[in-house]
Structures are given as C-alpha cells and as structure tokens.
Target: Endonuclease/exonuclease/phosphatase domain-containing protein
Amino acid sequence: TEFFLQLAQFPCPWVIGGDFNCALDTVMDRSSSVQVAQTHMAKTILASMRKYGLMDVWRHLHPTVREYSHYSHVHFFESRLVSFFRFISDHSPIMIQLEAPDDLQGPFRMTGGEIKLAIQEFFQFNHSPPSSPDMIWEAFKATIRGKIIAFSLACRKKFQQRMVSLEQELRGAETELYKNNSAENRERVALLQPDMNELSSVGAEKALLRIRSRFYARGDKAGKLLAWQLCHEEADRLIPSIRLPDGNTSFAPEAINGAFQKYYSALYSTQCNEKSMKGSMVSFLDNIEIPAL
Model:
C-alpha cells in the first residue's frame, strides 16, 4: 500500500513492470487445479489498482489466455508472476527497467579463416599487370563485401531456424505439460527452457548492438556521420521546382528563390492606402468622447 501511495504522488504517470512474486488471479494465473485463497499481497495490489486507475496490460489484452512465467519445481505447477501495470489513458508513458548481468560477453567477431581464403582466392586470379591497382582494389572491396554479406545471411538463417524449431518444441512440451502434469513432461520442459532462454538472450544482444547508439556517442561532433545526416536532411527539404505566376514550371534555383521572395514580400506588405486609412482613423476618433482629467 505504501509503495502505490508513493507511486501516486509522483508528478507524472508511471508504469511499473516487475516480478511481484504474486499471482493476481488464482484461477487464470495458475496451472494447478487446486483452489487456493487469494493472498494478502494480491488483495492489496488489486485494491491499489482500483484506487489509482491501474490495469494489467497483458491480462487486459488476453483475458482468457493461460500463459505462465514461472515454474515451481517444488509444487509442480506454473504461474504468471510478471505484471505490467499502467494508467488507463491513451497518453500514459511506459517505462521498463532492465538489469543486465555483470558478466556480459563481448560482441561477435567473425573468424578469419573464410575471409583469408577468399582474399587468397581473389588475388590468385587478379594480378596487377593486366588491371590497374585502383580497379583491383575496388573489385576486391566488392568481393569481400559480398562474402561478408553471404556469411551473415547464412548465420542469421541458421539462428532463425534453430530459434523457430526450439520455440515449437518448447510450445509442444508446455502444451503436453498442461494436459498431463507428469514427471517426464516436467523434465522435458526443464531441459528445453534454458536453451530457449540462452537463444533469446543472444537475439536480444544482437538487437541491442544494432541500435543507433553511435548517434548518442558522437552527438554534434564534426565527422562523416553528421555530414551524412545533414546531407539527407538537406535533400529532404530541397524544392526541385516551382510553378511561376505565368503558369510555367521552373527548375532554376534563382527563379525558385525569386518566386518565394515575391510571395512573402506581397504577403507581409501593407495592402491599404496610408492616407485613406489615416483619414478614417481620425474621423473615427473625432466622434468618440474620451474622458480626460
């Protein structure tokens, strides 16, 4: 209760995601058929959700689905302990805090065996006397780029096939466990779950490595990245042509700039006659009795 009270006093809406070690729904969030009473923690969380207008996002989207996030090897049943709460609003921000382990592995590095073999094979058939060194260098870069792309695609395809196969196998094992809670099915799920977690961690690591962290690291420093970004923004804002007042289309930069200059000069210039406007203002003020001290 104190936690939700402190949460409600924050200056902006927050969303908390975490393992509360508590099943909110004793029927839908537990695989066991044994009826149990709702815990005091679950009652407190549900009461706070009603009081502060919170909702469990996943349960709201899947009201009749049974999915579990924890398997108890002691009690031999599964339960859903992870909840993602948010305010009932279309403008509520979402924040998820992730804690990574300290012993992180380094990024993937390609082995040089296949690259060395490709380099030797290329220079075996391409010599400097028949072609110029510049042409050989450009052809070599294109060849190595193709080898790296082919190697990356093969590794990605192999990883995706393994991921899909393991997901299907684990899903089938969990389905059999839901139907028959036997020791054999529990052991099969327990053996497949670590492999699935390891592959998911590898996939998440690859996704994190592909984020645009270099934009934050380099910031507004002068370099190729900033020049490339400005070049793209300039190309997006470029006006290639304009239709002139006479109906013709011009592609000349001088004509485009002149057309914009004439348009905005006419737009922001005074359209009224100064003498007639001054006379009307004087005649209007003469007919008004202005009190004076």
